[in-house]
Amino acid sequence: MSDVRSGPCQWETVIGLEAHVHLRTASKLFCACPNKFGGEPNTRICPVCSGMPGALPVINGRAVALAVQAGLALGCAVNLHSLFSRKSYFYPDLPNGFQTSQLEPPVCSSGLFRLEASGGTRVNPEIRINRIHLEDDAGKCIHMGSSCSMVDLNRAGTPMIEIVTEPDLRSGAEAAEFMRQLRKLLMYLDITDGNMEEGSMRCDVNVSLRPFGAKEYGTRAELKNLNSFISVRAAVEFEEERQKEILEAQGAVEQETRLFDPESCTTRAMRSKEDAPDYRYFPNPDLPPIILTQAFVDKIHGSLPERPEKRRERYVETLGLHDEEASLLAASAALADYFEAALALCSSPKRVAGLILGELLPEASRRSVAFADLGFSPARLAHTVTMLEQGKVSLKVVQDLFSELLDSGESVEKLAEKKGLLQVSDAGALEQAVLAAIEANPAEAADYRAGKKKLLAFFVGRVMRETKGAGNPAVINELVKKHLGA
Amino acid sequence: MPEIYDLSLSRVAEGLRNKEYGVSEVVESALARIEATEPKLNACISILADAAREQAVRMDKQGPQKNQPLWGVPVGFKDVICLKGSRTTCASRFLENFRPFYDAEVAVRMKEAGAVVLAKTNMDEFAMGSTTENSCFGRTANPWDLERVPGGSSGGSAASVAAKQVFAALGSDTGGSIRQPAGFCGCVGLKPTYGRVSRYGVVAFGSSFDQVGPLTRTVEDCARVFAVLAGPDAKDSTSARLDLHPEGLPEQDFVAKAGRGRSEEPADTLKGMKIGVPDEFWESGLTAEVEERCRDILKKLEGQGATLVPVSLPNQKYALAVYYIMASAEAGTNLARFDGVRYGRRAENPADLLDLYVSSRSRGFGEEVQRRIMLGTFVLSSGYYDAYYRKAAQIRRLLLRDFENALDLERGGCHALLAPTSPCAAWKFGSLSADPLTVYKMDLLTVTLNLVGLPGLALSAGLGRESGMPAGIQIMGRPFDEAALLRLGAVIERLAPGLGEPAGI
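Predict the joint structure of the above. Result:
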């Protein structure tokens, strides 16, 4: 078994987790403001998300669809009728004085997540999902010293789902691994951008201890707002030790909410059960119930992509991609779909993967846009691959011209032709260049003839440079061998 | 030759269209009337004279616009309706200097119809109250007797219309706040079906109860303004996606129907119509004069061929309790946004965050508002939710069933129900203010319609024999069938004794 039960410890750690996940939508949950991280404070706000008098919320249908998609991916039952409630508390970053969340019924209930085994976890444990509900995020307070705080409402109204597990996790490592794998799945489905630094994913963790074999749960502490895998693990492990000490001294763990300090890797009490706020949930009268049709749910179910693990395996085993290439492509359903769409129109998985990973993604990241926003259709990618295959252009030229290819909208061979970079495969035309290269480098030519066959690449390179990359390397190879001997 | 301000909205709109007078003349006439009556009434919180005059000049230059049914007509807005750039106070210290940077949807529609907003009218703070005494700008007087309340919370709108300051005013009705003051001041007030008129930009009191509607001098005027307000709004999720009247008639037809038969009334106008008389409303401690006036209307309707049907709404006895539980729960959370952080009143030099909230809100909100917030907070508290809110929500559904049974035409139900708007006529200032519970009880006959979301049209049944004050009667009808209410209202308007001029001004 795993290391959790090793050692003298007689306590079993029981963990339930609430993951807060920002949804990738164009606009906020209840208004048309852009759903984007950062920006000048209070520039992405309107009467609705800044809680102006008289403003009213209108639900973002895309957010509901993403919540349903997440639910289906986690094996949940989708509730065709669910309700928004007001959760009341005062804080300066909460414009309405209440959060709009879901109590009963939430959009999804009772699912199951199969954790893949990893260091520190049990063997493929099953983590039951209690529920998934939709809610809006608050703004942010920026504290400027002790006497001044500022409020930025750009984040207020960001659509989120909260994924609540049953208390099925058994160690800090497992809790962190759950978050890691959950993030991977939700990013694959493009439900979230998964950006932990920007707070797109964070979690609260409930930790309690009980003697091994006990049926009853111990008293739990809730650890709030953990925003990295390392914090999740460290917070749970600190809490395990803290509670163990109390229990072994015959003390009682208090039910309380605790804050984790990532600097010292300790937790400290924030509020006790008695101080727990009374949120006074009740149905939000400004929002009618969310009524979904079974057909809507079925449609989303039908369009759920193949699981990422399956896809990766298939890419390696049937397409012959490297493990790493396959993993990168299968990390996002959208990317994998793109890859497959291009592949359907040409015949070289290697080249398609190479261009996506070597050119398309780096170019997107240079331009700070999503790859899909480059507007380079799978058909154009496939055409480029076909041109490569047919020897019309060289890989070097494609690489050099890639940025222009994106901007111009022209086909790769047109672009290459304009620049005189169409691949030259005509032996007659290349022979001149090969002879010139031999003549210009007599020492190397002599070495080659003396048996230093590695210099073949040197001569091919010279000729390529001479032809600005347009020479067909295979043809040049043959010509060099012809004149210097194989 | 009557003054322009004396004319009905329908007549003045016609005169403007025919260029009998210009917008500036109409605006000046109304402003002169405001100047003459306002010292006695205090019906307005803000008088937008400069803006209205400028707008009038622009409009006169441009000439009448065919597609603007209210072109050039001066109107008032209850100060709960956001008007871009104009102070919108809700009669609260908290919002004393608040200027919204957006228009309420109803403001947009009224402007697009060509109306000139002349005044923001007085009200009970955040629409909580039925006397317009709970205003940080002072109380409004009833034009029929300056010693009496105009009703509320849209008391400023009702008094302004009854005193002919404006040709129509918008009010909001959460538990009777349009119908009760319309009854008290002798004007016409319509609470539309919940979802009929957009609530966007109307500062919320009870979100599942609030509806904006017109207060006017005649039923026809009411129909004209209602036709402008009604219709779906994508910014309000509770707005009904209904463009058409249930019978398939376009909104514009309300006007034609309401105005029908301005000439002599044939004796069988109402032949075949069943009018329900709910016991629970008529046997609820009405004053003799109110009962007399309203029964007289019933008799006259019978004379027009209508059949009176006794009706029972067994859950009506719970209506008041259910209303004060649910409306306060919604109000408490709706008012949570007034925290002193982003706009409105903020306490100076608060000791800490809690002090910022407590001081800003304690000083910003009046007594009645604080009472409702506490009530709302209590009924939603952990451990009390099931006993209060959940139970109330269940009874609310039962009440709706009572009305569905009474109005179910296919099973022999009524076309409409009729009842007084209040158990009594307008009372004297201060006579009830020491006893909030008694004032709450005065809402007994109006809160029910808000609980069930159905439309109600209030108008005068004549002057009471003892008080000499108007007695209000309300027609309650089927959902989204305001046209039927306006039709019947027009008949009652002709049958009821004339009121003459308000005696107080």
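The domain at 427-484 of chain A is CATH 1.10.10.410 (Arc Repressor Mutant, subunit A).
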